[in-house]
Specification:
Blueprint: H1 3-19, E1 27-35, E2 40-49, E3 52-64, E4 67-73, H2 79-85, E5 93-94, H3 100-103
Parallel strand pairs: 4-5
Antiparallel strand pairs: 1-2, 2-3, 3-4
């Protein structure tokens, strides 16, 4: 299996695991969006809590030029750490939610 295909599998596993956790309040759905053609992956929460609209991204991950770009990470554990545990080298993970300047000070790829 080539690297990008393996990365897709890892991302899908992680997103499916997080999608199993549904909010304990409100009428909120968890939506999993996986675009294998363009390598965009998202986990959203959509619904209502009392009179308040809930619509937000929990996770947004892309694959660009063979690297995993974490665009948004709303988890406590951190998706980058989970990917490293699965065997993804830190050089293939970009913390896209951080400014390009700050990325150089992390253990991950600057881009």
């Amino acid at each position: 299996m080539d690297t990008v295909t393996q990365y897709r599998t890892y991302i899908e596993q992680i997103l499916r695991d997080y999608s199993a956790y549904t909010p304990s309040y409100g009428d909120i759905d968890v939506e999993l969006i996986m675009d294998y053609t363009h390598d965009h992956y998202q986990l959203l929460r959509v619904g209502w809590h009392k009179q308040q609209r809930i619509h937000g991204i929990v996770l947004h991950i892309d694959i660009r030029d063979g690297k995993i770009w974490i665009q948004h990470d709303g988890t406590e554990e951190g998706v980058a750490n989970q990917l490293v545990e699965k065997g993804v080298p830190k050089t293939d993970i970009v913390l896209g939610f951080q400014s390009p300047y700050k990325r150089q000070f992390t253990d991950f790829s600057p881009g």
